[in-house]
Specification:
The chain has 90 residues and is mainly alpha-helical. It contains two helices and two strands. Helices cover 36% and strands 4% of the residues. The protein has a two-stranded parallel sheet. It starts with 11 loop residues before the first helix and ends with a helix. Bound molecules: zinc ion. Residues 31, 35, 41, 58 line the site of zinc ion.
Length: 90
């Protein structure tokens, strides 16, 4: 049986998974250089969504494979204005 093009379209579930994966990659790519630039972790003690929206949060992400878990849908991938100000070259 020949497959139709519509059969190969990503499902809603795989699109959500791709968005979460991209958010996590963006968070990691911002987080690690943040350390190199002397930014510290901001622990949010497993609060989800994190009360501070920054790539530097830690302890918000509990191990889970459940894609509907809060942590997967609330991955901060931005710096706060205060962190950006601290990163400016003087
Ligand atoms: Zn870290």
């Amino acid at each position: 049986m020949r497959r139709r093009a519509s059969d190969r379209r990503p499902s809603v579930r795989s699109a959500a998974r791709a968005r979460q994966r991209n958010d996590k990659i963006a968070q990691t790519l911002g987080h690690e250089p943040g350390h190199a630039l002397n930014l510290a972790h901001i622990s949010v003690a497993h609060a989800c969504p994190p009360p501070v929206w920054t790539v530097m949060v830690t302890n918000y992400f509990q191990q889970t494979t459940l894609l509907t878990d809060c942590a997967w849908n609330n991955i901060p991938h931005e710096y706060t204005a205060a962190e950006i100000a601290a990163l400016r070259v003087r």
